Amino acid sequence: MEQNRAAVKEFSHARARRAGMAAFVGTAIEWYDFYIYATAAALVFGPLFFPEADRMVGVAAAFATYAVGFAVRPLGGIIFGHIGDKFGRRPSLVITLLVMGVSTALVGLLPTYASIGVWAPALLIVLRALQGLAVGGEWGGAVLMAVEHAPEKHKTFYGGFAQLGNPAGALMATLMFSALTSRGDDFLMNGGWRIPFLLSFVLILVGFWVRNRVEESPVFEAKVEGAVQALPLKTAIVKNWKPILLGIGLLPLSTGGYQLTTTFATAYGTDPSVGLDETLVLNALALAALVELVATLGVAWLGDRWGRKRVMFIGLLGSMILVIPQFLVMSTGPEWLLFVAFCAMRLMMTATYAPMATIMSQLFPPQARYTSISLSNGIAAAFWGGLSPLAATLLYAATGSIWPVLAVFLGMGTLSIFCLYFAPQHRDEEPYSETADAAPATTNETIEA
């Protein structure tokens, strides 16, 4: 009997590892696609697609197209959440990967404003919207595949695999543009910026192969044996509206704050008033992304030991403390301190992000869970993540000061802490038993932080 239990335990961890790795590979590719757009928006899209504006207005216009990808994420959550709740997590994730990869690669083939005029930014917006639709359904499904395969006591750790995709994608995107900018502005502006986008054609083949091999979520399979709701969106809105709202309020710092300390920081640091070299800022961001990549699973492991909500609280508070020195050191130097500030800030942001996959997953019972988490995350990302770089750029352009931007960051952190305190955590029973592979029915038992 003891050997039987040990074999079942090892089997459950093996499937959880496969699901976690599939979540990591897929999200890394999708976030790479997402972040190369963000970096290009900060560095080159202004003059290439909005050349008639001055620099900061052009950057703001580029960030507005960047925000479009966030604005449509709730719709992507509804579309792919419906597929994921009715037909399975795996088919939804394969589709999102293909949509994301193709739309990103096509950005690399776009003619610029100099070639086709206003059609260039129009087409850029369309492709950015397709990116947003894909990401709107991607994150929730990848997170659920990782968390729902995991044993209860290890959910935060395995959920961290899905969160690894963000720093991995950011690192790949930042290193790519760092290498390109090192060859000079002429190379970057005269076609070099297209290379990271065209590389997506290769990456989607890798991601498709990995995603298509992973098993379906055992929690979804158990739900199918019961009753599948006819309209997941209706179930989500009627039964899960409170945790959906809590999830929206939980994420401003993890989404919008992250964008302020990365995407907006790139535009701010390279503005002539600050005067930092583009390659320097990108290298600092690359090192910070590496720190996050290395730290994510360790922080997620701590979430299972100390409590996932407690770890996220530490990250929120630490981020609010460190954001001021990060931006101040960008304008005062020295350069080596810039690397320290970026890495320290990213480590705190990791603590807000690594346990978030499991916290958000366990906000909801299994019924309509894919739709609920995607809708909550999509709305939060659209509002906080999509508007933050644009709002920060406009605030900075209007005031000439970074302090209003920092005040916004601190306000978002305060809201995150408030909603974290009230966020419920539903418990899924073990996804594997000695007699079956599927998960038993879930309960509404909550887990204290």
Shape by Cα distribution: globular
- CATH H level: which superfamily? MFS general substrate transporter like domains
The helical percent reads over 70%
Which CATH class is shown?
Mainly Alpha
- For the secondary structure, the number of strands is 0
What would you say the CATH architecture is?
Up-down Bundle
pLDDT under 50 segments (min length 5)? Answer: 3-8, 433-449
Mean pLDDT: 84
> What is the beta-strand fraction?
under 5%
For this structure, the quaternary state is single chain
What is the H-and-E element order? HHHHHHHHHHHHHHHHHHHH
Number of self-contained structural domains: 1
SSE class: mainly alpha
What is the tally of helical segments?
20
Quick gist of this model?
With 449 residues, the protein is mostly helical. The chain has helices at residues 2-43, 45-49, 55-71, 73-87, 89-107, 113-116, 119-148, 155-181, 185-192, 194-198, 200-211, 218-225, 232-250, 252-270, 278-306, 308-332, 335-353, 356-361, 369-399, 403-422.
Describe the structure.
With 449 residues, the chain is mostly helical. The chain has a single domain, classed as MFS general substrate transporter like domains (Growth Hormone, Chain: A, Up-down Bundle), CATH 1.20.1250.20. It is 80% helix and 0% strand. It has 20 helices and no strands. α4 (73-87) packs antiparallel against α19 (369-399), α8 packs antiparallel against α15 (278-306) and α15 (278-306) packs parallel to α17 (335-353). It starts with a helix and ends in a 27-residue tail after the last helix.
